[in-house]
Amino acid sequence: MWSSAFRGTGRAFRGTGKKANHFGQGRFARRQRSTIATDVPIQQKSVSPVRLVFRGIGYTLAASAAAGTVYTAYKLHKQYQSWENVLDAGQRFFRTMHAGALITWDYKWNLYNLDEDSEEYKTTISQIHLRTAQRMRDVCLKSGGLYIKVGQYLAAQNHVSPREYTETLKVLQDRAPHKLWPEIEQVFLEDLGAEPSKFFKEFDQTPIAAASIAQVHHAVTHDGREVAVKMQYPEVRRRFGVDMFTYDLVLELLAKFFPTLDVRWMSTEMRSVLEQELDFMNEARNAEKAFKNFKGNPTYYIPKVHWDLTAGRVMTAEYIHGVKVTDVKGFEKMGFTSKEVAHKTISCLAEQVFVHGFLHADPHPGNIFVRPNPKGKQYGAQVVLLDHGLYKQLSDPTRILFARLYKALVLNQRDEARKVCLEMGITNWKMFAMAILMRPLDPDDIFGPEVSRTQRLEMLRNREKLVLYMQNNFAKRREEMMSMMRAMPIELLLVFRNNNLIRSINHELGVPVNRFTLFARYSMKGLAASGTETLAGWRDRMNFEWKLFTMDLRYWVEGILLRVGKKVGLIPSDITQEGTKR
User: Fold this and answer.
1) Active site residues
2) Cα–Cα distances in angstroms (integers) from residue 123 to residues 25, 115, 117, in the given order
3) For the stretch 427-447, what's the b/e string if a residue is b when 16 or more beta carbons lie within 10 angstroms of its beta carbon?
4) pTM
5) Per-residue pLDDT tens digits for 243-288
């Protein structure tokens, strides 16, 4: 929530007034302090009427704050029926507000009056980014639940977030805290009505996986079926109201202090999505629907739900033996290549977006497994989607518009792309295209016409200069970006998240496939399935395939040039066709 607010914000924080060296990092701490003569007698000054008025106002505000705190505590006690729960809610709230205040002041104090092009600015802002990420990580780990989910999302934004953020917060992907069995046993008893021994021959009380709002246990039913039992943490629903209040308050403060980052319009959609994710019956329905959508296609698989062992906070599904989609050594031992796995994974998710219109909105590597296809070796790898709590059903008009737009962008049909964006209510179609493709249509979209060819080449060779330039450029165009996002259909928010995670997976696998042409094929497939657009004649089909072939050929050549450039030292080793490795 705090990540993008503090990028390139040196000028935004400049203010006036004296400062205390709270962080020990400010340049003003180095100023020589003036001395006061001690032999001059101190004269008593009378308090002016104006000061008395302001003092009275201060006392009134303090009393009002105290009364508000007491009233809020009373309301929370009525809601939670326990002062222990009220204290927990208060601690989480004030922990977040305290961290937010420190983060804001850290940036404001240490970036005051610094030239953004100076070396001192670059060093200082890197240090602030690191401290900020560490504070956010600590708040997420201490608060758990929805905080972990927010931290995981920030960690996945490796194309826009500073490296300090992504490197520090990525521990949240694998270090989500879990509960001991006595702490979570009551959830099982309340939702299923009996001890695990009634339903299972074997039940491992040690979780095999832990996520932001739940953990998973391995079990074996009495008839010998292996299952995964997902159990929600007992405090998650109780904390939801306070956590969402805190989230809304953070958005309000963000809009107040940084008007160009006003994202309050996202709040209603996020609340709706998270409420659905807390209902495991809803997750089970999502899994069943996704299973039916892929029925008859052995390449993709959704674990079957055991409805008799599923309730609001407990979900039981078929256990899957496999490896994470990014575990290259793991699936290579099975005989599969990165190219095959990437192609099938991206195709699976593209089909959900463009054909089904019912998409997995959290396809991070931990939620996608690869295993040998049970139908036989000739089928190769099978992609298995897990964790179906966060899904989005696109309306047909939105799905069709998005499919038309993606097809037009990949095939470089700019007039059609501009037309579709206008139908969506978006005027800045080039910025929207860059947000979707995560790469510019033209070099000027990154550098601007004021940057010479020599400067561009220098930035492409120097990753730090390129990243800094792009961050500063984004900061300058932030208001334009936010205006564009407010104009787009709200449904596309989770499509953007899905799209970014797909890019990230392809990136981690070494970019073995061209995701743009894959998406173009599925966008065309989705349009044909809806009857909106078809390739009626053989000439249309040949033209479409020729354009995709030339794109793939160009992509292949770019890959060769990139590898050669790395070997001769012209291109940094952490640059890929998907961007910069973090």
Assistant:
1) 362
2) 11, 12, 11
3) ebbbbbbbbbbbeebeeeebb
4) 0.74
5) 888 888 888 877 777 676 677 777 777 788 888 889 999 999 999 9
